[in-house]
Amino acid sequence: MRSKINNINEHINYRVLARKYRPNDFGELIGQETLVKTFQNSLNKGRLAHAFLLTGIRGVGKTTTARIIAKALNCINDGTNKEPTFDICNKCSPCLSINKGNYLDVIEVDAASRTGVDGIREIIDSVMYSPNDGQYKVYIIDEVHMLSNAAFNALLKTLEEPPERVKFIFATTEIVKIPATIISRCQRFDLQRVDIDTLINHLQKICDLEKIIYERDAIFQICKASEGSVRDALSLLDQAASLCNEDIKNELVLNMLGLNGYDNNIKLIELCLKNNCSEALKVYDELLHNGIQPVQITTNLLEVCHHASKLNVIKADNSLSEAFQEKIQNIASYGLPKIVRLWQILIKGIEELRYAPSESQAGSMIIIKLCYGSSLPDPSELIEILSKKKLLNKDTNDKTDDLSIDQNISSNINIIDLESNIPKSFGEMLEILLKNKEALLHAQIINNVHLIDFQKGFIEIRLKDPSNKDILKTLSTTLENITEMKWIIKLSDKEGEKTVMEQKDVLYSQAKQDIKLNPNIVEVFKYFPEATITSIKND
Length: 539
What we know:
Elements: H1 2-13, H2 17-20, H3 33-45, E1 51-55, H4 62-74, H5 93-100, E2 106-110, H6 117-126, E3 137-142, H7 149-160, E4 166-172, H8 180-183, E5 187-190, H9 196-210, E6 213-214, H10 216-226, H11 230-243, E7 247-248, H12 250-256, H13 262-273, H14 277-289, H15 294-314, H16 322-332, H17 336-355, H18 359-375, H19 379-395, H20 399-412, H21 426-435, H22 439-448, E8 449-455, E9 458-463, H23 470-483, E10 488-491, H24 500-516, H25 519-527
Parallel strand pairs: 1-4, 1-5, 2-3, 3-4, 6-7, 9-10
Antiparallel strand pairs: 8-9
């Protein structure tokens, strides 16, 4: 019975690794050396800002850093500290209370649940009061980007000139949503993704402390999947420890992360590079049978191409384990041009999967295109072929040789002259639309589009009717189909040119006015004063 009670207590008292190993001072922060050094110098020299803005991806330590700063501002050590200190004791009353989250002078606000201006007004009213117990009153506002514009505006004046013993610390994952007026009033720190080697060492230390047996490759896969987030890495480690019964095996971790078919991804790319389409489709069908979706297969193939491309450039990739690095190296040996070509096909394939009626069919077509694309000659090879053809044409008039060369080229690549289909101006684009029987789209554009900028592959416009945003997608897709190149249609608030119809109306009005001033027409209006000009035709 006592054993059962002890087990229950263990379950109740268990703290997940992400909370148990949360840093308590600057020395325990990992991967943020610049931030730590800056605060050390600022605290030692008494040059602390009144507001701090911490930004970075989830799980890199923004809220944790904010609490550490709060402790540094209020730590009294043994009662001798009268000013902020870098050397946090974690033993004095303020430090212990902040760790527990019940210190009166450290106020944490979750902006995600208090987005309105009322919560900010409460803060503004309370900053005028002196700290209850500590040296500083610290306001930590997490997910600050969730505040409304009214809330940000209400905070501006107080943030610019806060009371002497008040500090603000903001944390956000989306710095782009923070108004520039707020950013300019804060000392900004961009918390970095923790590099994979540092993260591996950190997790290995925790495993040793927790007496968890592990394979290094398994820890590597966990750190890679976390993408530089310490919290994500610790959460995955917790999950892996439960799955593997505290004996973390690489194979089980790969299965947990959905990476157990990674070898097949490498095999699939290699088959495509060898133009072995039938075997490649078999591997693709096998992956589908194992429950992996076409989008995920395509994404995994993109990752293989990415690593293979990197190995062509930097010769070593620290984000890969030794076993996988050797396998990827074989892919890299096919050369950068071919791998980049497969990358482009896969990127295009991701977009095609979104609109395809059958994802599995679209996925198999991507595999076929990969095989076909790998057999095409590189641009350098093509230039060489064309140069040989030119040389042979110069040296001999033998038509048969010319024909064989043309056949050799066409067997490797289908050369299509698309330049005639690529508009060089907005007017040419309208003509091409009519030529391709896109009369409805043509009518929508001439009536509703104000041109701002036109370049090859890029058009910036303003819509006369903002609600008619479907034009953007329709125009982009239509031009892409006609020209076989990507077109970006950017919506802008700039004034731009008049619409084509407005321009025609101006020209028509001017022509009408010129006609009315013609002496012959003036004479006609004398005899027919109620006559009107209904149309103008050019002979």
